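Running this now, will post back.
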Amino acid sequence: MLTRLILLLLTAAGLFTATTAEAQARGAPRGQAEVCDSDSIEWAGPAFANSISWQRMEWTPFGPVEYGWETYLPLIQHELGTDCAPNSPVFALKLAEFQFGHGLPPTGWFDAATFQTFRGLWQERRPFIMARVREEPCPEPPPLYQLGYLVESEEHADRLTRLLRRDVLDAYRRLVAAARAEVPEVANDPELLQIFSGFRDPEADAARCAAAGNCDGLRRAVCSPHRTGTAVDLFVGQLAGLGVDNTSAASRLHMTRTPTYRWLVKNAGRFGFTPYVYEPWHWEWISPTGGYAGQ
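Update: finished.
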């Protein structure tokens, strides 16, 4: 009885409804706020459970213990086709529909098994990674004539040696132009969306792996998509005192809360880029043929 009373109070307070301002901030058309409190009776229980777990659930999605799943919320919302908050009945309903469609119990509750299904889908959209799953040979880097230099304004940390495949560089420039036109934060900060890693020479990458001892397939891969000139590491913000590619839970959460990252989740696909869930800064370009460039 007490739980039902709390749920009714939360609903009455509007905590289960996306306001017009919130919807616009997430990219919804002006004046068209998404209604997130429909089916409030049937899905209030799962919504309440999600309202607790999204910041408090103790789990190990990538090895180390993490608390909550807010870091992955933008990608999950995009996959579900909703901007509704995780404590809303509509989010729970959409999650249950996803679970049912993928052979999971349609509880509407977020759990580790559901996340692994999301993660599998996101990984399958990375052709380079799927080629590794099929145990295909690691590809040779592209010939130098296929690579183009970034200009100074596109490079982060004042390094002028970064390269990308020319077709990927063109797509990146279209993406940045769109972001600057559509996201005030990006328009006002030229550092955002600058590249801090593009094409990486395989021999140099291997030497760095050996020196750092961190080629564990999570933080760095022995056969990296950066060798193809189709992967980019974009500056999306950073937590004070930590690096632009710091993988701590606090760092990644900070990045995924930024308008820049949230815009990328919704719009990078327009320009051929797909994300790597563990690294908010890492995006890979998919060629029009459906593979990574060079195939």
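Residues 145 and 165 are 9 Å apart (CA to CA). More later if anyone needs it.
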